[in-house]
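Write out the 3D structure for:
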Amino acid sequence: MKPFKSFIAIGDTSRIGFSLMGREVTVLRGNTHSTDLSNVERIEFSSNFLLVFKRLLFHNPETNVLYVPGRLYRDCKFYRQPLCIGNTELISAQFSKSACIQFKLFTQGFSNWNHHNIDFDIDSIPSLEQSVLFIQNLITFINRVIDEFGSVDSLNLMKLRLDSFDNYALRNHSVIHSINLLEINGFAKSMNNVGKDNTFWAEFEIKNLPESLYLRSIIIEILSTNYRIYEYDYGILAVGESSKAWDSWHPRSPIEGDGGIKNLLFYEVKGRIDNYRALLLELRL
């Protein structure tokens, strides 16, 4: 059984921030069992060729889809060719039980290159729009990393997921959920100063921190503006400012409430999320 074929116009790739979505992406419709596209609708050639993805649906499109970049010439024949953008050459992208993206990646200055196969499990085949958007975001992300660090050698790209490039700012429910799950226990503490006013302060043990290293770093950054932060195996200890008073000191004792910590985090955290920095921390070796 021959695979079902269609073509997806890529558009202008002369700049790294190219667009694969919107009007620049067209699923060309015609004789889908050959490369004869003479009767295809909505096909416009601005030059002697059109840069496209060939989309192959093997047997069951719900279990195996392959995208291969190349060029579609005026004779309507497809010629396979890597998609070259910045420091990346995309060879193919296949989605089945896993997502397998084949790249040739160049270091900064193009002094060296390596083949990279990015392979990670997926629950279901993404739609055409989701697949193209993922490929676009992946290329943009990799080029940005190479521009900043020279290569991707310090990252484990196998940790990627299909939703890795979702905008954290548009996923506030996940952030709010992570903050709600924090376990915060408050304590009043004091220190006896012989012949002087005693010192009093409140401190908070914060447990069940999110798995995301990036979100953890944001939480610590926010709390550091009002507390001294100490990291322990259980989580973090946030120590508030101390005050002095001529009063009897007491041992460490529990207090009610979280000192307004969750409200502070809810207010501050959304405006600090940067998905690029989040991915860098999540993908570090």
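Helices lie at 128-149, 172-180, 213-223, 261-269, 275-282.
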